[in-house]
Amino acid sequence: MFQQTLTDRIVRLARVLTPLLVLAAPGAALGQCDPATLFGAQTRFAAGDGPRSVVLGDLDGDGDADMVLVNTSTNDVSVLLNRGDGTFDPQQRFAAGDGPQSVALGDLDGDGDADMAVANLRSDDASVLLNQCAPSDPCPADLDGDGELTLFDFLAFQNLFDAGDLRADFDGDGSLTLFDFLAFQNAFDAGC
Ligand SMILES: [Ca+2]
Ligand SMILES: [Ca+2]
Ligand SMILES: [Ca+2]
Ligand SMILES: [Ca+2]
């Protein structure tokens, strides 16, 4: 009788636990990726001759990852800027040394943007390329560009806003709303 009761309890416990164990089992998690469809179809972007390595980094300061390829046969690098959606503008080529093999990104001159260093196999040296992307505007509210903040900058903002010009997108969300007025006001109050 005791044996019977114990067996019943074990069976009932197993019924309760089994679904929980299945949920916790590897491979059963919700949202797990199917290895067969993990990636969509490739999209290809032209580089130079014999690209050997690639690095990603935000080269133009717009927050998305751009791409640098090292072209061993053409002795240069290809820079492809991200359009913000994982597609890239056509390459821009910059000369490196002889037989470049790899590249690293980092702020080498301390101005806040990503520069690059390229290792050149055949010329036994490194190429340093400094990023010349314009630094961020120290006086964004000076929309008429006269170096001071006046009523005319308010009027210029109003005109840009009314024209749907994204230079009036002061909160940077890609659309023009009341919050851009507030962000412009804050930039104006911050001065130059
Ligand atoms: Ca970028
Ligand atoms: Ca830099
Ligand atoms: Ca002004
Ligand atoms: Ca906005």
Give a structural overview.
The protein has 192 residues and is α+β, with helices and mostly antiparallel strands. It has helices at residues 2-24, 151-162, 178-190; strands at 51-57, 66-71, 76-80, 92-95, 100-106, 115-120, 125-129. The strands form two sheets. A four-stranded antiparallel sheet has the order 1-2-3-4, with no helix packed on it. Strands 5-6-7 form a three-stranded antiparallel sheet, with no helix packed on it. It is extended and about 60 Å long. Mean pLDDT is 86; it is low at 16-29. One calcium ion (CA) binds next to loops.
Keywords:
192 residues, three-stranded antiparallel sheet, four-stranded antiparallel sheet, 7 strands
Largest sheet: 4 strands, antiparallel
| DSSP, total strands | 7
Into which percentage range does the β-strand content fall?
15-25%
List the secondary-structure elements in sequence, H or E.
HEEEEEEEHH
Average pLDDT over all residues: 86
Q: Which structural class matches the secondary elements? A: alpha+beta
Question: What gap, in angstroms, lies between the N and C termini?
Answer: 89 Å
Bound molecules: calcium ion
Please work out how many helical segments DSSP would assign: 3
Radius of gyration: 28 Å
Q: Major sheet: order of its strands?
A: 1-2-3-4
| Oligomer status | single chain
